[in-house]
Amino acid sequence: RTTMKSLRFISAEAFVSNAQFARRSLGAVAHDLFPLLFKASYLLEQGEVIHDLVENWPLFDLNIGKLLGANLDYQEDLRHRTCSVCLESCLTGLRDYVLNQSSPYMKKLRVVDLTGIKDVEVQFCKCKKTMGRWARTQMISKLCSELLVYLQQAQCNPVTFEISINVLIDLFVTERNYEPVMLALLKKCSCPLKICCTAFRSDNLTLQKFFYIIKLIDPFLLRKLEIVHNVHLEMEHLEMLFNSTHFPLLMSLTLPARTFNVRRFTATDEQMLTNIGEKMGEMTQLTELSVSFSILTGRIQKLLSPLKTPLKMLDVSNCSLNHADMAFLANSFHAYHLEALDLSGHDITELYPSTFFKLLSHCSSVLRSLTLEDCNIQDTHVNMMILGLSPCQKLQEFKFIGNPLSSQALKHLFTFLCELPMLKNVEFPVPRDCYPTGITYPIDDASLCRFDNQKYERVAEELNFILLQANREDVKASTPLFGSYDAAVQETNNELGAYLIKSFKETLEKFTTSFNNMS
């Protein structure tokens, strides 16, 4: 599909396509053409031109999301292109904007917004090299530190020290890039480029370092907080965090696995959970919550009832919810506002079918994403699922891998899914009849790939043909055996893998020592 371009945009492409000419001529370009030239340069991956445009930026703000988004001149959205050449040129151009003392333009720039960039699985840039969120965090932090060192050593124009630019960015911090980020945040007051964190993700970080850096990022600005893999945050630490830090603008909260475990609750723990719920109730902007892989049996009401704002996204996958939990969700005011819901790991059709379908009915008018992985949905439940999903006319994404469904049941379900007008993405399981007879669910990792691949491919073709016949080529259907694509995990998988090996080795050493002591 070709996207229409205005004559202005075609002219801009022609201008930046000769990098040497464009760089020489920037001084004669009208200020209001810089945004147009930026998008044209980004599309053509003209890194040198991007650098010079940013170095001489004549406007008050530089918002990457707005610059690369769809506009009247060129309607294609380029925000998903995390092209390394373009982004590196943009960031070094920002550094040189501060250092450039011969720029013909008065330095007006006050805000740089890098938050509009979208990390996706498939990249269309020619260089095929991406700069993900972790790498962007690392680079802007290092540039801030380098800038400070240079300003302290060199004879700079006094005006340079008066420059103050807020750089809005979604930070992603792990053990490997902690030091440069921490240094940049510590010296924020002295640096012309001031990192302003609007979203923070922490993976593979000690609690001590997490608590230290969360203070440095200015939690008053934070809208999204993700504490994910290998951050051993338990309930008492979460209470400590909420008691010591105020998050007035927080809209989205993701907690690591096993933050809560009601199976070993004492009276003190019950009070702690009440306190956490009350603190979350004070976060009046909070509309997204993920507490997956915690054990919250019978405690969902205690955690969620203090919330004053309805949740739009809720992930309680693998939380061992009971009937009381599901009844609370179905009858709560959140039910009517849920746009994304993940109930994976719960036997919904056997344990609480009526309350689950009541919840689905209440959120059907707004629901956009539904995830029901490993929910023991069988062939006998398909008609009931179709009945429950029929009102969900705004559903864009349905994920249900890990369920014991036959090829025939999947075809029946896909015929119905074609009728959902907004549907764009379906993640379906490997059919049960592709596995050896006697396979048990949920399937363990060792058996997950032991299926008849040729038969699966035939079934997948038939399912795609059902979509094709219904003129639904716009729907992407896939079977990601090991979970959906996660840009953050993909970018740091080497570090996470090394951490897991280290943890396994330490556990093995402890076991060996204990065994030897017993001997």
From TrEMBL:
Record bears the keyword DNA repair: no
InterPro entries: LRR_dom_sf (IPR032675), LRRC14/PRAME (IPR050694)
Keywords: Leucine-rich repeat, Repeat
GO cellular component: cytoplasm
Keyword Repeat: yes
Family classification: Belongs to the PRAME family. LRRC14 subfamily.
PANTHER family, sorted: LEUCINE-RICH REPEAT-CONTAINING PROTEIN 14B, SIMILAR TO PREFERENTIALLY EXPRESSED ANTIGEN IN MELANOMA-LIKE 3
Protein name, UniProt field: Leucine-rich repeat-containing protein 14B
